[in-house]
Design brief:
nine-stranded antiparallel beta sheet, elongated, Lipocalin, about 10% helix, mainly beta, three-stranded antiparallel beta sheet
Length: about 200
């Protein structure tokens, strides 16, 4: 084989090697398979689902509520701090979804010995473009009081309008109005199944 033939053979071999190393996507840097861009896409959530009674909800308030400033009939919103799952464990409502509520009753602190109360009711939850009615009771809230150091415990009671949030106090102070700060956590329990197909 002549020297020129050796050169031609070397060029052909190099070209073949380059072709074998080229990605299947056809261009340098392209992956062999399509990239999945659906992570976190709400369209992957089921359209029809049921959230069973007894499901726990962890919510975060988006604005302050106060027994001194708010009035009965005021509305409020909170964000889900954790996903909601159906009975099989599948995520059906994602963290960050909006939960709406209403203040059913307000009682400002009448004196230095009696704290104010707020009665809250959760009404709807917004999921994947749909608003669903929700029935739930509040089990725990992060509370503050205008009088620092006056609170030693929390009282939650239920009535036909919602959950009454009050407190146990041990000292006479100037102001015992309850305050639920922006960002406060509310833990609640679903009392009736939520069915998205209704």
């Amino acid at each position: 084989m002549t020297r020129n033939n050796w050169i031609a053979l070397a060029i052909l071999t190099s070209a073949a090697a380059l072709g074998a190393c080229r990605p299947k996507g056809g261009e340098a840097g392209q992956p062999d398979r399509a990239v999945d861009n659906t992570a976190g896409d709400r369209s992957n959530l089921p359209v029809s689902f049921t959230v069973p009674a007894g499901t726990r909800l962890d919510l975060t308030l988006t604005a302050e509520l106060s027994s001194r400033k708010n009035k009965a009939g005021d509305t409020f919103t909170a964000k889900l701090a954790t996903d909601i799952r159906d009975a099989s464990g599948k995520v059906v409502i994602e963290t960050g979804s909006t939960v709406n509520g209403t203040i059913a009753e307000v009682k400002p602190a009448p004196n230095r010995r009696t704290p104010g109360t707020l009665t809250l009711a959760l009404t709807t939850i917004e999921s994947n473009g749909t608003t669903l009615p929700i029935r739930a009771t509040i089990d725990s809230v992060q509370t503050e009081y205008a009088a620092a150091g006056a609170v030693v415990g929390q009282i939650l009671s239920k009535n036909t309008k919602g959950t009454v949030i009050g407190a146990v106090v041990t000292a006479e102070t100037k102001d015992l109005d309850i305050v639920l700060a922006d960002g406060s956590h509310i833990l609640a329990t679903v009392t009736e199944p939520m069915n998205s197909s209704q």
